[in-house]
Amino acid sequence: MANKPFQYTPLTKERDLDNLIQEIGDARVVMLGEASHGTSEYYTWRTAISRRLIEEKGFTFIAVEGDWPECYAVNRLIKGYQNSGNKIADVLQVYRRWPTWMWANWEVAALIEWLREHNNQHNPREKAGFYGLDVYSLWESLDQIVRYLEHNDGQAAEAARLAINCFEPFNRDPQTYAQATAFVPTDCENEVIEMLQRVQQHRTYTDDPEQDFNTQQNARVAANAERYYRAMIRGGENSWNLRDTHMMETLDHLLEFHGPDAKAIVWEHNTHIGDARYTDMADNGMFNIGQLAREKYGRDNVRLVGFGSYQGTVIAGKSWGAPMQKMDVPPAMSGSWEEMLHSISTDDKIILSKDIKHLPGLQERIGHRAIGVVYDPKFEMFGNYVPTVIPDRYDAFIYFDETEAVHPLRMKSRGAKEPDLYPWNY
């Protein structure tokens, strides 16, 4: 393949996205990936694609690989809800859980600024939203539930306080909780389920028309996070699958909440949005949100777009919770997907899967680079390449020959206590 060029669209300006937008067609769900959590081009071009999908095809919201409470604060800002803040950089300070740079960066600030300006020109029903799909925010979600319900529903608030009290002996450390409950039946599952049931019965009306949904989603996060942390300490594929199942369920709830015509844009790592059935993840019993979405909504209604690069720089940490660093990303490994694309041309490019399915070798798994929040360039050949059938894993792929690191907002992080169970930390 390396010596056999194929059809692609050079990517230099936003209008070069036309073929991709046409390929997306009438899909209801578009998932935009990334090969790292710290590369500027992935964010800026996902923003460009998202703008066009919102403006030209009426997409309803962006859902990202971030925690629900923090992302909902951004959603309130861009929709102009009362007491939601004014300065974007100030609101982005809510992202204080390590790795802070994933969402507290200037590239995301530019996206948020555009979303706010777009929404200011539309009526409430036409405003685009911004939500988090992830499952990590156990205590933050519990705190938000109690604060809200104390003023609205005493019985539901009491159920939430009982759940918090159950977790208190573990000092808000999910690893401590998971280890303590691994072999002794002293977990808090019943408490969070009771809280979830109480919250689902709760209804109120405020200046924020999404407040009931927000409270219910925080309760769902708490219930699933409790399960996730217990599964995580046992290892294996179950915790990964629980996490992606939660993200898929959250996407389902968002689409249902926004109505039958709602359409979703998802921003997550390639390892989540690229169909796991066409990687070695499937060999280990793992699935992901990209696979689940295709299975539920049908391939015609879902478009999966992978991202990658040959070399450059990235923001990451040498270990979980370590200070963020700007690191060099070395040239891609010989025989990898990225090295093949580089050998064809150094153009940044858009590749549609339908244009490469016929090429020899691409129906077999080849190495495809994936960089997590934990990264060390010296060792990337030992764990940073996912064997992948490219044209089946994605519907399209966006390649950059050289990329630069994302530009973080500077802040202190908190809560970097999740155990390093998977070497890639996606």
Automatic annotation (TrEMBL):
Signal peptide residues on this chain, from the entry's feature table: none
Coiled coil stretches, renumbered: none
Pfam families xrefs: Erythro_esteras (PF05139)
Matching Gene3D superfamilies: Biosynthetic Protein domain, EreA-like (biosynthetic domain), EreA-like, domain 2
Any GO BP annotation: response to antibiotic
Protein origin, superkingdom: Bacteria
Record-given protein name: Erythromycin esterase family protein
Organism from which the protein derives: Pontibacter oryzae
